[in-house]
Amino acid sequence: MSGNLVQMLEGNTFVVSDERGDIEASATDPTGLFSFDTRFLSTWVLTVNGQRLTALSTDDVQYFQTRFFLVPGTGTVYVDAKLSVIRLREVGDGFHEELRVLNHDSEPAELAIRIDAASDFADLFEVKDALRKKGQYQAQVAGQSLLLSYRRETFARQTCISSSEPALIEPGGLEFRITVPAHGQWKTELNVVASGGAPGGFPADPAGITGQRRVRRDMARGLEKWLNKAPSLNCDWQPLERIYRCCLTDLAALRFTTLTMPDRALPAAGLPWFMTIFGRDSIFTSLQTLPFTPELAAATLLALAERQGTRTDDFRDEDPGRIMHEIRYGELTAFEERPQSPYYGSADATPLFVVLLDEYERWTGDTKLVADLEHAARAALAWIDDYADLQGNGYVSYQRRNAETGLENQCWKDSWESVSYRNGDLPGFPRATCELQGYAYDAKVRAARLARLVWKDPEFADRLERQAADLKRRFNRDFWVPDGGYFAAALDADGRQVDSLTSNVGHLLWSGIVAKSKARALARHLLGPRLFSGWGVRTLAEGEARYNPIGYHVGAVWPFDNSFIAWGLRRYGFAPEAARIIDGVLSAAAIFDGRLPEAFGGYPRSATRYPVRYPTACSPQAWSTGAPLLLLRVALGLQPAGGKLIVDPALPTLIGHLELLDIPGPWKRIDALGRGRIDTGYPAGRPR
Amino acid sequence: MPPARGGSGAVDPVGRFFTSLGREPHIPTFERQSARLRFEIADGERTERWTVAVHDGTAAVSRRPGDADAVVRMTRDCAEAVVAGRLNVQAALLRGLISCEGSLAAVTMFQRCLPGPPGSTGRVPPISSQAVMAQRRPG
Question: Fewer CB atoms inside 10 A, N or C side of chain A?
Fold first, then answer.
């Protein structure tokens, strides 16, 4: 099959096809039409007189629309240029395809246009595992439609395929026997409707679902409006304008509406496989984008509060007050073979929920939402004290209770080897990773502010502040690695330090838990040769046993991670250090044409002129998309305070003059200007 | 209102659940929430209806039909599993065991008063570093 995968998306329905628009799914080719985490089409192959086609070009007209220009024949030498085929595909409830055949010859063309269609109704989780399905399939011709269906007990999913022109329909597909006049054309509309995917949607509530789809469509069409609403950016360094526009456009594509909240969009984690709510990813992205698109944060807070844990459920790792990790809608979730209904195995999303609530209020003055979410915030804070302290030592730690399908590492570095001692050994469980303590500290400090300002409960505020001060004192004592001059990655199940040097110390600066006397040592490490590659801060320091420059969480550089580290550095007054990170990550973004990957290799910048992309399936990734936005905020030193916006620029020389105009907030709209004065050691005008 | 009774004559867990929900003076997980739900529970030929009006920490329960934001339909077996925490509502909706007409948000909210699965303790024994390493070593 052709190498190029074309992805298009609308809500959580998406199509992955080859460059011809064909779908031929197999265990190794995760193509198809997916909706609500189920594959509704695994075969969709167009032939003309039995011949496959060749793509002349493929245009992504919009993120939900693609146009394929095709000619019959697959030979590399000869293509029959007397005929061309244009497929215009638009994703919605399934997809809509306009198929147009143009005859360029002076003779009429007798053609058999055929579309092979089939569906394996695989759960997204099954796609790569090629698991055997437990239900029954049916392909049925009903009038002018082909119905593909799958049923396992009461679980039913259906794909309905129909066309505007009469077709010969049989269980394997549709065929059109047509004559296209000389220099004429023929056209048909093909409709593929996926149904039954929505919860409670089978037997379907077509009116409800369709109505919600319409809202999404309107949103998609409002891309231009979305771009216009965000602050505008002007800059001497041209690539930054492109990066900025790319971030905003990708954020628009990543907007996701839930069935319970169809009128508000929150950022999904990544396109296309993570087009769902992830507590951590949605929160971090919302934090990054607050100065630009604050409505994403409001939607995230409401959606997460709606699904906040209320009971003890070991299969889902749910506790009262806990903020969810991931929600899915496919067959494995439906039959409780996977726990994402939703799954709660994340130890950071809960404190970060409170952090976001406070940051959101600072950027919007929306005290009503803070009042509405008082119960949710208090429950989240109670979770930190009552459920997250698994070792009884006053620290947040995690250990999955679902040992089969739960997540082993419930922090942002969630791969199996991400937490290790210097010698490479892995600690036992529970694990109290350092950044979790920072988030918990920040959550308490910020909640204290909200308790005074909005909830009118100064006693609660006092208590939170006392707890935070105590946590900070203990943390600076128990996590500090004296012979390294940094904070341990974690405390293990015995309270022993997991002593490797990781990028997470930068998150500690962001949270404010670091004693002032220790901050300079951290800044030195973060910008030192073991952690800083020149493009950014590595996840794990060079010299640690598990360090690997292309190791996912053990050496690669994550733009999202770096954006929060830069924020942390500025919080402690290390503006030149933050500027070096801004320079590195934005330079990488320029090389990646504005769209940062999830991660890139930790090779030194002096050794590779270009950052080496880490191969992942998802692009754009929400928190990579948000990273340049947060870096802009950090570069301009934007800080909301008491309904005003403080602007304190500290830009690398690379950027030159920068204007961010019409920044929304309680101040209505404010402009921020800055000029790059910090020499980061890399000359401007490097490879772009 | 006398507790509803199941066909076998034993005290019916579904009726007991709704009745006691209506008697709770304060349900913290319903604070600042509001929605009206009608549950239609099919038991052979018979359909039992419960209407629950949630309003800021309270739930008014009645057997009278009326307007609702969501009409939730399931069998009696299903309802008994739900109120005992043996069946997760979200999973049951996906599986087609429960259907919802109207607001899914209302159903999502209602789940807040349901118990977790029986046997969930919230605790598991710690795992040592040696055990983790042994699992990760090849062979």
Answer: C
